[in-house]
User: What shape does this take?
Amino acid sequence: MNRSSDKLRLDKYLWAIRIFKTRSQATSAIDEGKVKLNSANIKPSRTVAIGDKYTIKTPARRWTIEVTGLLHDRAAYEEAIKNYVDITPEEDKLLNQQIGSSFYTGKRQSKTGHPTKKQRRDLEDFFEDQ
Assistant: This one.
C-alpha cells in the first residue's frame, strides 16, 4: 500500500508532526478556528496537500507552516520537522518570545503565597506573645 498517495486528515497530520499532543486537541483547535488555511476556517477532516500553508494558534505560540511532506503516523521530533517548514512572520516570532517569557510554569514566585516554615513560626510566636 503506497501511503504517499493516501488521503491524510488535517487533525491527524497536526498530531503526527507534533504540533498538538493529542489528536483530539488538534480536532478541538481546528473546530474552534485556531487553525486556518489561507485565512479561511476549515474542518478537521480536510485533506492535507503538499504546499498547503496553515496558520496555527496555540496557547504557547502562534505560527505559520507550509506542508512539505505527509506524515501518517506520529514520529520522533527530528523526523516530524522534516515534513513542514516554519514560515512564521517576524512579528509573530516576537510575540512568541513575549508569550514564552511570561508563560506560567506552575511554580510559585518566591515571597508570594503561603508563608515559609520560618515565617509561620515567627507568626505563631508573635501571636502567642500577645
In short: The helical segments are 10-16, 23-31, 77-80, 90-102, 117-129. The first strand starts at residue 35 and ends at 37. Residues 90-102 form the longest helix (13 residues).
